[in-house]
């Protein structure tokens, strides 16, 4: 089995059956045949080998990116324009995906970047809740102590599963210099998953609050990724 085969098998068998806190729902894009097909095309295109990659851990998939394509930090627009993979669903726009693909372009393009790095998340499925206006919004695994308690064991098992795919364990990269970094560092202290976790500001944070300094953050990412 290639790296791609292992990722595809992992994705297609994702499920979560435990009880969640009231008002929180799970978002599993891989229950849809179309998403499984799109994600399979992506991983077969960029990961159909047995090369070792370095893992980049996000938080959990969002509704307009990985929640639709099954590919972390890849919204439908970038899937079509940057990865040249057909997509027939709603063409959504995710700011994190915009940043990531600008960074990937600066790195040398998807082929070069994905030959060295592999994106996943602390929790591989998404969460949603209804806001006070009745609108469905993304929810992070660390947004409530109750949710952390409900998914902690699954996050541990997920990280073990990601390592088993064949990623390097000397250095891991983490998106999020706040709660995601704090939580992953605590787990790493306990389980010694990785020799070092290098945290980078989350793409969503950059695009929402630091967009005028976007190039500085792209340069920071490139400098960090040059370490491996």
Automatic annotation (TrEMBL):
Give the superkingdom in one word.
Answer: Bacteria
Pfam families the UniProt entry points to: UDG (PF03167)
**Provenance organism:** Mucilaginibacter boryungensis
Question: Start and end of every Uracil-DNA glycosylase-like domain?
Answer: 45-225
UniProt cross-references to CDD domains, sorted A to Z: UDG-F3-like_SMUG2
Q: What is this protein called?
A: DUF4918 family protein
């Amino acid at each position: 089995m290639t790296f791609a085969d292992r990722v595809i098998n992992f994705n297609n068998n994702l499920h979560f059956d435990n009880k969640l806190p009231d008002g929180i729902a799970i978002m599993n894009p891989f229950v849809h045949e179309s998403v499984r097909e799109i994600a399979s095309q992506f991983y077969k295109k960029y990961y159909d080998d047995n090369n070792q990659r370095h893992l980049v851990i996000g938080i959990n998939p969002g509704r307009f990116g990985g929640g639709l394509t099954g590919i972390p930090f890849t919204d439908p627009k970038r899937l079509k324009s940057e990865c040249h993979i057909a997509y027939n669903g709603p063409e959504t726009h995710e700011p994190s995906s915009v940043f990531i693909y600008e960074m990937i372009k600066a790195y040398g393009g998807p082929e070069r970047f994905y030959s060295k790095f592999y994106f996943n998340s602390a929790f591989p499925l998404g969460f949603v809740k209804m806001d006070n206006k009745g609108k469905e919004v993304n929810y992070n695994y660390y947004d409530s102590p109750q949710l952390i308690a409900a998914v902690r064991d699954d996050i541990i098992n997920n990280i073990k599963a990601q390592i088993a795919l064949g990623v390097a364990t000397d250095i891991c990269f983490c998106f999020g210099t706040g709660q995601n970094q704090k939580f992953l560092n605590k787990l790493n202290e306990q389980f010694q998953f990785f020799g070092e976790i290098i945290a980078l500001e989350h793409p969503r944070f950059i695009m929402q609050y630091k967009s005028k300094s976007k190039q500085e953050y792209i340069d920071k990412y490139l400098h960090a990724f040059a370490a491996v």
